[in-house]
Design goal:
Layout (H helix, E strand, L loop, with lengths): L26 H13 L22 H9 L2 E4 L8 E4 L13 H7 L18
Antiparallel strand pairs: 1-2
Length: about 130
């Protein structure tokens, strides 16, 4: 007979306020999480599947999200002359990537590509 052992460490099941029927997160903690991402994690990790519009009604008001988006310069175009140009971000723009491509990300991180954090909360137990 073969005996299999579970060598995976699982997170404990705790009575969090976001568990249960309504299953939602606290808006203030989501806002703090975005602030931590912006100040710390965004240097290496991307959130390429999230746009600034995803913040509206969850952690920021529409005016606050527009202000955050306008802080970022986005390459757009081409214009009438066929040139690409930079413009302030809009709510429909996605979060900027920290590196131009995967090769640049790997070169800056000793060969490892930092994972995208768009859906990290879905990967967590508990």
């Amino acid at each position: 007979q073969e005996v299999k052992a579970d060598l995976t460490l699982h997170a404990p099941s705790l009575p969090w306020s976001h568990n249960g029927v309504f299953n939602s997160l606290d808006h203030a903690s989501v806002r703090r999480g975005y602030q931590v991402y912006k100040q710390v994690c965004a240097a290496c990790h991307s959130m390429r599947f999230l746009a600034f519009r995803n913040l509206v009604g969850v952690s920021h008001t529409e005016a606050e999200a527009k202000e955050l988006a306008e802080e970022v310069m986005v390459q757009d175009g081409p214009n009438e002359a066929g040139d690409m140009f930079d413009r302030p971000g809009k709510l429909s723009d996605y979060f900027p990537k920290p590196f131009a491509n995967d090769a640049a990300a790997a070169a800056a991180n000793n060969g490892a590509i930092p994972p995208d954090l768009s859906y990290i909360t879905l990967a967590r137990h508990g």
